[in-house]
Amino acid sequence: MAENKNEILSPDNSDDQLKFRDPLISGLDASDGEMESLSLDASVRSEPSVSRSSSLMGNLSRYEDCMDEETKDLFVVVDDPEKHTSTLEAYVTFRITTKTTRSEFDDSQFQVRRRYNDFLWLRQKLEESYPTHLVPPLPEKHSLRRLDRFSPEFLKVRQQALQKFLTRLANHPVLSFDKNFQVFLTAKAWEFQAHKKHGTGILSRMSDSIHNISASYMMKNRSPEFSMIYDYIQNFAEKLGVIDRISQRIVKEQTDYVLELCEWGPIYTLWSNSEDELTFPLLAMSRAVDICAQALKETIETTEDNFSQPLKEYILYTDAIKAVLRRRDAIQMEYEATIDELNRKKDEREHVKISDQTYSIGAFLGKDPEDVKQQKQDKLEQQIDELTKKMEELNDRTVCADTDLRVDMERWHKNKQKDIKDLFIEAADRQILYYEKCLKTWEDAIRGIQAKDISQDALESQGIENSPNNLSSEERGDTMEGSSTTSEPQEGTTSSDPSG
Amino acid sequence: MADDAIPKYSPEGLSHDSAEEDPFENARQAGKKNLLQWMEISVAEPEKRVVTSMKVQDTFIVYLVETRITDKNIKYNGDGTSSLWRRYSEFELLQNYLSITYPYIVVPPLPEKKASYVWQNSPTDKFDTEFIERRRAALEIFMLRVAAHPVLSQDKIFIGFMQREDGWKESVYLTDFQSKADSRLKALSASFRLRSPDRQYDELKNYCNELESNIANLLKIRARMADKLYGIHKIHANYGRVYNEWSGIEKDMAEPLQSASHYMNVFSQSVDGILDEEEQYADQLKEYLAFADSLRSVCRKYECLQYDVERAEDNLTYKKSQKDMMEQGKTGGAFSLSGMKTKLFGSDTPEQRDQKIKQLEEQIKQTEEEVQTTSQDLQKFIDASLRDIDRFKRQKVKDLKEIFTNYAVMQIKQCKKGIAIWTSAKDCYTKM
């Protein structure tokens, strides 16, 4: 069954990847005016992946049991950004407060200040030390919105992203026990700087295999499990990319709409200057329009912070997943390359056994062909032994890598589902809040528009005909009667009213 | 000439050709202030007609104008109903007739000929069903407004418009209303030559300009707002699409995503209804934009009459000063024309002078009469028009309050709809 699937899947696999890659890159570069065509593309491409991914989910669900609730014993809070200015550079540090019950820590509470570069260092260290684990992403170094990097808005967004990064690490069963992570959380400034310098000696053991990343696309025997993860992540990243672009488009339209509203409201105010009896209704309209514009403005701002940014983090997350998948591929590749090499040597050994060495270079030089043969065979035996050992070692590594990744992906899927859920619920709540604000505004506005209506009715009852506006003839008859019958008591009230 | 422009409030003006039983006269005498108190009027059922004459195809829309007498005491025309087809140009003729015949009345305007202040999805074709339906509604409002007017609703031509299919057009032209129309032409420049225009009308003219520019700006921005709102909603359909595709690669999230996709589409589609309703608001504002023009046209007609008075007065002053000079003889100013003449040709004989003075006195008398009649006309016009402008203002206050209230109610409705859709979407997300 699994083999069968493999055969079906692998041929179009690499093909798919190429197809996916192209539009993704060009799609990101393209201006957001291409929404229609982009989402159309997505619909075409996503269809073949349906069957595959559902079985992927089946695979993953098997690991759910061992991934149950871990008891949280490490809490990290990022806050209080602070700008530092030295003669050479200006930078921002964030306060990182850690509370823990873990015995590995000397104390139960720590407080340090770290800058973005320190986070970058930590992440790099983690990727080097745990090439087969999924290391959560950091926010991009530069603001996409081209904000001043010391502006409060930018720092708020960054603080949120860094908080997410550290929380994800703290909740990770393996990464949270990393020595560098612990140092990052606890070390005093000078200790930390020293550690950073000292730590560079390790350098990546992985650097060799990382060079092979591009080669991994040519790998034939990637297990369907990871091919499916790869496909899923590609697809998922693409969907998030589309959603991000849609949300940007909506924000843009909303911003334009707010601008129009901001022009619309004042016209009612202007109009109110040339009316005597309509001043209140017109001002009520003006105010309502202004309040709604303000409400939408706030909605747009919170969308940026609470929707767009988390969405971007998830897009970065998919890049991290792709990176770890590539590292896993590299390990498998090395393993497979070793197997190939071993098989070649074995073939050679068979070949040497039956070959006639009479015309070999050795024999030509005067050696005994049988000796040459023996020598070659010995050498091959030795190589085969070495390769077999290496193969077994690599096999272990591959199996470990697969397990690590599988577990991490399972964790990721669980988190993703919760994060996406929260993200979308929050977005819906924001819309509901906006409409509720507007609803209340217009309800208040009606009261403003109808204000002073009593005196108005009294005027009307003195012989003004009803307007045909918006009223069917029947209703008109009713209101006619209504106004004439109410006119009597009203005259009574106006006469008793001192102001009237 | 000016005499014709003055309203005929006297019943004689209306009843001279009354038949054996004129329900309109009866109703008027029975104390009915306007037609709507005993008659139901509707403009229903637009219909497309194609007429080919001399190989030229003419396509137009006709509207069914229906009336029904609701007061059982008034008997007319069998069962008291009438229905006939009218096309827009006939409405135009009626409106034109009314505004010329009743220059002192703020005559209700007709719906716009061509769609203005349009946004991207507004119909551009004049045969678009939605456009025609909106025009039908507006024509009905026009009819109801005229019928609700204490003076206009008594007009024979107006009644004929609803009752007489054949020969109505001819009867309109028989009134020779167009001969009075030319007086409007000089109105264009009259205001510049007025010596002492009434402050009230100057203020009214300013008010018209302000009203026009405010409403025009509101409409202009509203059209842009409609574009944006349309975009905001329609882009949500893309969410619908991508959620649907996304649901294909998810397990637990698949179903919630698919239902959410549905609500995104619902949200996207909801804008169509919203903008239809907002179009009504725009139409109502447009009517008042046109009303500003009706009001201005009353001001212009005032200016014409004021101009007539001033011209008569000028004439009188001139004649009087001439007469004075004649009487004073040589004592006329050293540089005056008559002084020069006297010097050159010798002075007139006393007989000649007497003759001229007599002639002038005759002219002065005529001019004085002219001043008197034009002043009377003007005063009558001012009284009548101020009365109608007052009526218009009250109608305007009432209408606009109603229009704004309706707008607020519409917004509330839309907000509730929005809340409902997003609450449903939230329910989907909660199941993720």
UniProtKB/TrEMBL annotation, chain A:
Residue ranges, compositional bias (Polar residues): 463-472, 481-500
Domain PX span(s) in chain numbering: 72-192
Q: Tell me the Gene Ontology biological-process terms attached to this UniProt entry.
A: autophagy of mitochondrion; endocytic recycling; piecemeal microautophagy of the nucleus; protein transport; reticulophagy
| UniProt cross-references to CDD domains, sorted A to Z | PX_SNX7_30_like
GO cellular component assignments: early endosome; phagophore assembly site
Q: How does it sit in the membrane?
A: Peripheral membrane protein
- Which Gene3D superfamilies does this chain map to? Arfaptin homology (AH) domain/BAR domain (1.20.1270.60), Phox-like domain (3.30.1520.10)
Question: InterPro entries per the record?
Answer: AH/BAR_dom_sf (IPR027267), PX_dom (IPR001683), PX_dom_sf (IPR036871)
Q: Which keywords does UniProt give here?
A: Coiled coil, Cytoplasm, Lipid-binding, Membrane, Transport
User: Could you tell me which residues belong to the region Disordered?
Assistant: 1-32, 458-500
Q: Which residues form the signal peptide?
A: none
What SMART domains does the record tag this protein with? PX
Compartment(s) where it occurs, according to its Swiss-Prot or TrEMBL record: Cytoplasm; Endomembrane system
Record-linked Pfam families: PX (PF00787)
Q: Which GO terms describe its molecular function?
A: phosphatidylinositol binding
Q: Which family does it belong to?
A: Belongs to the sorting nexin family.
Name of this protein = PX domain-containing protein
Q: Which organism is it from?
A: Magallana gigas (Pacific oyster)
Q: What is the lineage of its organism?
A: Eukaryota, Metazoa, Spiralia, Lophotrochozoa, Mollusca
Automatic annotation (TrEMBL), chain B:
Disordered: where is this region?
Answer: 1-26
Quick one: a GO biological-process term for this protein? Answer: protein transport
Q: Where is the PX domain?
A: 41-168
Q: Give the top-rank taxon of the lineage listed in the UniProt record for this protein.
A: Eukaryota
- Which sequence ranges form a coiled-coil region, renumbered to this chain? 201-228, 350-384
Q: Can the keyword Glycoprotein be found in this entry's annotation?
A: no
Instruction: Supply the alphabetized keyword list.
Output: Coiled coil
The GO molecular function terms of this record are: phosphatidylinositol-3-phosphate binding
* Entries under CDD domains matching the protein: BAR_SNX4, PX_SNX4
Q: Would the keyword Coiled coil turn up in this protein's UniProt record? A: yes
GO CC terms: early endosome membrane; plasma membrane; SNARE complex
What the record says about family reads:
Belongs to the sorting nexin family.
The protein, known as: PX domain-containing protein
Q: Which organism is it from?
A: Magallana gigas (Pacific oyster)
